[in-house]
Design goal:
The protein is an alpha/beta fold and about 210 residues long. It contains 10 helices and 6 strands.
Length: about 210
């Protein structure tokens, strides 16, 4: 069994979900007492969030590259970034290690294509929704039509992620707002919605 390297902590709430799902999948496939071989390097999200907010992306990139190098030295066979937003520097991270970086947008797109979906909604942090490092990959590499909420909807989604979900808070009013945003995307013809921030599943699954 190969060793999966995870760069986590952004937030630890969602990293726990990655850990749970990976181990659940291994158990379902192999049965018995089997569990995944995982090497986790968890960063201090407060430091990363500050760099994001202040637009200090080169420093954030150094953090991520360092984490990937630590994981490779630890013996992992591949590396995953347990947050959509920090895939912004995925090319730089991949360039610093010899093990493959498994890009979250690729696996997402493959699943979307399997389901025969063409027009897809995207929710996530403002960086994931507005910038091209994620949705551009879906459009350019997989020929998907990606829709995001209008500006006010993006603000709501981003605020709830950082001020509530990353702190483990599940607020009913926010759940209702997300449901309305998803409904509005549906009226624009989307056939599904990417929860492009793992923390969102903590809210939508409630």
């Amino acid at each position: 069994m190969k060793v999966i390297g995870l760069i986590g902590g952004m937030s630890w709430e969602s990293t726990a979900e990655y850990y749970r799902i990976i181990n659940k999948t291994v158990k379902e496939r192999l049965g018995g007492l089997h569990s995944a071989k995982i090497l986790l390097y968890s960063v201090d999200f407060s430091e990363i969030a500050t760099l994001q907010t202040e637009g200090r992306w080169p420093e954030a990139t150094k953090f991520m590259c360092d984490a990937a190098q630590r994981i490779e030295r630890g013996g992992a066979d591949c590396v995953l970034i347990c947050t959509n937003t920090m895939h912004k520097m995925a090319p730089e991270v991949q360039s610093t290690v010899t093990i493959p970086l498994l890009h979250i947008a690729d696996t997402t797109a493959i699943e979307i294509k399997k389901r025969g979906i063409k027009r897809i909604g995207l929710l996530g942090t403002k960086y994931t929704m507005v910038e091209d490092f994620y949705k551009g990959r879906l459009v350019d590499d997989y020929d998907l039509d990606v829709c995001i909420p209008p500006e006010d909807g993006c603000r709501i989604v981003n605020r709830v992620i950082y001020e509530e979900l990353c702190l483990g808070k599940v607020v009913e009013e926010s759940k209702n707002q997300f449901q309305q945003i998803i409904h509005d995307l549906n009226t624009r013809g989307v056939e599904g919605v990417i929860l492009g921030c793992t923390e969102i599943s903590l809210l939508i699954n409630q």
